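Below is the record:
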Amino acid sequence: MRLSDHELERYARHIVLPQVGGLGQRKLKAAIVAVIGAGGIGSAVIPALAGAGIGKLTIIDSDVVDLSNLHRQPLYREDDEGRPKSELAAEFVKRLNRFVEPRPVRERIGADNAAKLLVGHDLVIDGSDNFATRLAVSDACVALGIPLLSGAAVQFQGQVGLFRSRPCYRCFVGDAFDADDCDTCAELGVLGALTGTVGSFAGLLAINAIIGIDGDQAGKINLFDGEKLEWRAIRIPPDPRCRACGSA
């Protein structure tokens, strides 16, 4: 996939990096990525990917902008209240980088439609705010053989993990959270800057994974404590009884 003269200039600070180069930038341009959730985490991931030159970006979110979102979702403004997040995020991408093709999907993703919405993507980034959605997305990614990058933030705690089928996200959290009635940041609260920290880390990990410099990150959860300002990583072992990837 060829880069135009304008793209070569636009991505010059990437291309000069020996870990990226022209080959890595072409990989980014060829990539088709789905971002689930254009909220706090998505508001950091989407600009990172669009700025990096991801070729096609699907933005899946059924929600509209609420004033309570604005302390952590800088993609939006006060006069966006009531407008669909997926469409606004796609408009942002178009303004930022005309070489990225955004596709907004104003639909709630779940077990019944996840496979249909995600098939054909090279990477899925999940920044949704409930376990039922995350598990449905994870199960679909395992079935489709698509790498999943999962990010979450609540109160002062954040986590980011990359999963390549086995172990999967369900190996990490188990089956107890399939119900759609778990606490979210609406009930528990979340520090606004935390979602940006987690989302930016997720964006960096996604870019590294697409280029091929993610090392041994798959199957590892990176945990961030926003009070102590500390990162730590834990390795997730495959669960032989996992109903999603146990026989993968």
Residues 14-235 form a domain with the Rossmann fold fold (CATH 3.40.50.720).
